[in-house]
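Hey team,

Filing this mostly as a record. A colleague (T.K.) asked me to run one chain through the structure pipeline before their review meeting, and I want the input and output archived in the tracker in case anyone asks later how it was produced. No errors, nothing strange. Just documentation.

Input sequence:
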Amino acid sequence: MKWSQIPLGVLQTNCYIVENPDQTCLIFDPGSEGKKLINWLTKRELRPVAIFLTHAHFDHIGAVDEVRDFFKIPVYVHEEEEEWLSDPKLNGSKFFMMKESVNARPAEFVLKKEEDINIAGFEFKLFETPGHSPGSVSYYFEHDGFVVSGDALFKGSIGRTDLPKGNQAQLLKSIHEKLLFLPEETVVLPGHGPETTIIEEMDSNPFLNGF
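Output structure:
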């Protein structure tokens, strides 16, 4: 199983494609530029089976409808942000000088608890990692040694918590209890910026010192 990082939109939000050898794949956070993402996938003859969201801020959901309609696949989101998809106030697009507000249809599936997920040959764990937003989650591929962390943990930083319903104490708790307990060599795939590892953030991330 391998993954690819595709930065999309003005905020260069990382969309991740995780693929199996049979060319089926999962899409994480199609935040913008739906046509670009669709072209990237079709050129490589990949067959998406689902879209998983780490959270429902506008820069992570902007291309959800375009991509799911093209490939006819379902969307998964945590129940805490189920309503954010269709509400520009909640997903933030109303307040960030967007040309158009982001308003996506409801997700086909709502994630309600931490669990092991098995879909079309993909096996991974769902961790609830709130703080950046109340429904933020991370997806841990244990056998392949990486975690899609959304806007929880970045290389040398953490997610912002000054947005509505953000909570820094809660975010730090999520990072320490859910992410830093992963094996040190685990690769972290963040919502923005370059990849990192658990050990690198434990050693050098200034936001995690003294927690």
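Quick notes for T.K.: The longest strand covers residues 2-8. The chain has six helices and 14 strands.
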